[in-house]
Structure formats: C-alpha cells, structure tokens
TrEMBL record:
It comes from Comamonas aquatica DA1877. PANTHER family: ATP-DEPENDENT RNA HELICASE RHLE, ATP-DEPENDENT RNA HELICASE RHLE-RELATED. This is DEAD-box ATP-dependent RNA helicase RhpA. Belongs to the DEAD box helicase family. The keyword ATP-binding applies. Residues 34-212 form the Helicase ATP-binding domain. It catalyses: ATP + H2O = ADP + phosphate + H(+). InterPro entries: DEAD/DEAH_box_helicase_dom, DEAD/DEAH_RhlB, DEAD_box_RNA_helicase, Helicase_ATP-bd, Helicase_C-like, P-loop_NTPase, RNA-helicase_DEAD-box_CS, RNA_helicase_DEAD_Q_motif.
Amino acid sequence: MTSSFSSLLLAEPLARAVAEMGYESMTPIQAQAIPVVLTGKDVMGAAQTGTGKTAAFSLPLLQRLMRHENSSASPARHPVRALVLLPTRELADQVAQQIALYAKHTKLRSTVVFGGMDMKPQTLELKKGVEVLVATPGRLLDHIEAKNVVLNQVEYVVLDEADRMLDIGFLPDLQRILSHLPKARTTLLFSATFSPEIKRLAGSYLQDPVTIEVARPNETASTVEQRFYSANDDDKRRAICTVLKDRGIRQAFIFSNSKLGCARLTRALERDGYRAAALHGDKSQDERLKALEAFKQGEVDLLVCTDVAARGLDIKDVPAVFNYDVPFNAEDYVHRIGRTGRAGASGLAVTMVSSSDTRLVADIEKLIKKKINVEAIELPDARRYRERDPRRDVAGREEVQRSASMPSTRPMRGARPVRSAPADPFFDKPYEASDAHTPSWDAAGSTGPKAVTPGLKTKRKVAALFKPAGSY
C-alpha cells in the first residue's frame, strides 16, 4: 500500500490543501484508513496519539462529500452530512481547525460547537447550514434539544478518542446522539485502546467494521525516552527544574492530577522564573484557548495541565512531558507522554514517583509491558535552591548594604521597631512582613511603628533589649 498522498487521487482542491500544508508521505494509520473510508466501509481504528488520525478520517470524508458542494446556498440545502464527536473542547477546536484547512479550497462548510462558550454564535453558524459538524457530546445535545440542528441526513459519524469519551461518562450522551442519526450511515471509531467497553460500543453501532491497528494496544512511542525518578512531594518541583536545566529543555507539558495542584504548581514555577500557564477545567474556554495559543507561539515555556489536556493536543516539537503526579489511570500515562515524540521526533517523558505511588507505577508497568526502573535523582542543596527569581537575592543584598551605611536611630521607648524588608524585583513590590519572617506586631502601618502602653516591667525589658552600647 502506497505511502504517498499524491497516489490517493484526491480531488484537486483537497490535494492542493494537503500540498500547501507540506504533507507528502502518509503515516501508517493514514495509509491504511484512507482507502478503506473512501469505499464507505465502517472502520474501527487503533493508533497511538500523534499518528495523524485527523487526516485519516477527514480527507476521505471531504472527498466523498464534495458531490454536495454545488448545492443551493439555502441552509436547507446544507444539512449536516458528517458528524465528528470528540471528548474535550480543546480537541474539538483543534480538529475543526484541521478540517477547515483541508476544505479551504472547497465549497463545503464546517463549524464546531462545544461547551463553555455562548450558544448564540454557534446557533447562527448552524442556522447557515454546514456539511461537517465537529462537536462535544454535551453541547451537541443542547443544540439538538433547542432544535438548532437536525441530524437526519448524516452520512458519516466519527467517534474520535472513543475510550476517553467512555472514561468521562459520555456513553449515555453518545447513545442519545446516535439515536438521532440515520441507520444507513458510515461509522468510524478511533480509540487508543480496544478495551472490552470499546468493543461493545463498536458491536452496537458499527456494521461489519474493518479493524485497523497500526501499533500494539497501549504501546508507547519508541521515540520517547521514559524516565521515572523518586521524589517526595516537597522535592518534585525542584527535580523538574533540575531536569529542565540539565537537559536544556525550553518547553514542556507538566501534568498534575488536580486542578488545585495545577494552579499552585503554575504559580510556583512562575516564581522560579519560568513563563508558565495553567490549563484545567476551572479555566474559561477563552482562557484555555489563549494559554494553548501562547504555548504554540513560544510565549509560554511550561504548560501545566490536568488530564483535560492529555488527549489530542497536536502541538509539534514539544521536547518533553513531565508527570508531576503519577496518573490515577494507567491509560492516561500513555496519552500524557504521547504529547511528545510526535511524528517521528524524539521526546522525553519524566515521571516523579513518591512512596505512595507504588501501585500506580505497577499498573503502568503492566499496561505498557515494560519493566520500570525508578531512579534516584541528584538535586541541588535545598538551602541553595531559590524558589523565586535569583535576581531578588542580589537586590536584597544591595538593600542590606545600603541600610547598613545609613545612621541608626534609637527606637521609641515603649514601642517595637519595624524591620525594613528588601525590595522584591520579581514582583516589583516590597516583601510583606510575613515574607520577611517578622512577627505580626512589627507591621504596624505605613507611617511608623505602633505605639503601645506597656507596664513598668515591660518598659524595662524593652529598654534593655534595644539599648545601644554606651548610651546609658
């Protein structure tokens, strides 16, 4: 079977778009899936992430739909012909962008709908009529119930990342959506694994599918170097920074198991001097898309994510992935590290393992069928490790030297002195009293120390404590 796009005999508008994107040779999943989809057969495909699945189903679908592109401009003549369902907002947006690029020289219309965004602009696009609709299940059901979209002329349905959709509880939504589709259709199911649940789903909704597997189930990419380091929770961030420095890594994904942990880690990395951004479920859709775009443009060094971003993010040339936390599900490990080593490039996957992660590591070992060696990692002395920008230390020393050269003043009798804190160039504001480790009663206000009216014994103790040498 050929591996050249030129031999597919795609329609000229599609072939031109593929050439403009710089594609020449097909990946294994593309070489096997595209000819089958062009025949109209159902497909059950398994491939590791980053193998070009989007083109594998998009190009043949667009090729077969081009017979509809000369229809009337009336929305009624532009019903949804192909439906692509995906588990996350980010993945839906990404796939929609790819399809739009492939179809840009055709008259076929496409759009995307997902949650977290206003429904009104999406409704306007749907009312204009589209041949290709990319959607997440929940938001699509919202539009179906609002009668914004009709699916009775769908010819193709794609269930991408089907295992992930089942993992996060979309099976009831999928069943409701599929009940709105014609039974005479082509169904394409793509999954990273062929679990029993996936096989049951395929048995219910696919008709005599052609099975395509381009890699053993749950196989990790051979181009990814996998390292596991022993580190307790207090040392994990220091270990990650050490690897980043030693390997000269400029960009990476870092995965955390919780939204709170993700947010805290992002702030800590920013204090370390890195340009970091968080990507998790509490972020608005606009914030998430902006963070992804900033990372793609190189404006962000470290993208700290929960597993909401572990699937389907196709960002080229990301050299490394760090698992700050070992994932709770072994399959998520495969998907996380699939963010690097894409399209034949080399990559590094580093997982921080604490003493409580033994069972989780064993699950990963069983899934990928490889022996995992948890190594020790040499870290810099914690006392020398700076949690914040080291420029602060220089400024701090300069401030101390300036203070030492100034004449000292005797504190007010009966009052506690206020200790000045060095300027903080990282935050461009002085330390708070708590940062300088001074007692709370030192911070008495902006105009001077707080006056007190102590008793006689207290006055004597204060006087003895602050009495300058030779002053009495």
